Amino acid sequence: HSVIVRKLCRLYSSSVKMSLEQAKQVAAYRAVDEFVTNGCIFGVGSGSTVVYAVQRLAERVETENLKVTCVPTSFQAKQLIVKHNLTLGELDTSPVIDVTIDGADEVDSHMTLIKGGGGCLLQEKIVASCSKKLIVIADYTKDSVKLGDRYKKGIPIEVVPLAYVPIQKKIEAMYGGEVKLRKAVAKAGPVVTDNGNFILDWLFTNQDLDWDKVSNVIKMIPGVVETGLFVKMCHKAYFGQPEGNVVER
Ligand code: 5RP
Q1: For residue 13, what pLDDT is reported?
Q2: 124 is catalytic
Q3: Eight-class DSSP state of 143
């Protein structure tokens, strides 16, 4: 009896995983098909959903003979571009990006994003800020009303290593909640970003804050490099659904 239950549980969880992956893929394919055009400068986001976007881009570059210059938002994105033989660009030579397609950890009803689950928020925000359009691709679990409704790991904040403790204390004193140093595994050393910094994850408790203001206030603390709050930056979001359709926002 218990063997059958275990087998059913495994089957269920693998089918949930499948539908999540399928949801990421359909959102990514839709965004690439809608926004990538010949000759464009394209910002390549980071994370597992973006892998599908680059896959689709490579297919289109090959079959439609497109010329696209790809500007990465992370070491991971750069590796994806190189692996698919796409044209690698950089902000020095392509400071204006036509469209960036990136993932998100959560998108609220005002299109405010939490980003940085993969620790790439600084370069992601720089590239997004240089982009005419930022398009988010995500599975249905990221589609939210208020930040914190669905994403429970908090708001990532990239900080200069020597300042991480005072920054933790200052954010907790100002806004409450708990600010944790991100570690790859418990009791191990801190996660180090592509820029040699640490990541703090702020487990906030008040979901009704003015996120624009909060992000600016936190950024003024010496040692804070960037926050994972992306306010008024996202042009459009595509959420892949478990049934394989895409919801646009
Ligand atoms: C990395 C990010 C990612 O875009 C975000 O974490 C979403 O990732 P995934 O597509 O794997 O869910 O901000 O810093």
Answers
A1: 61
A2: yes
A3: B
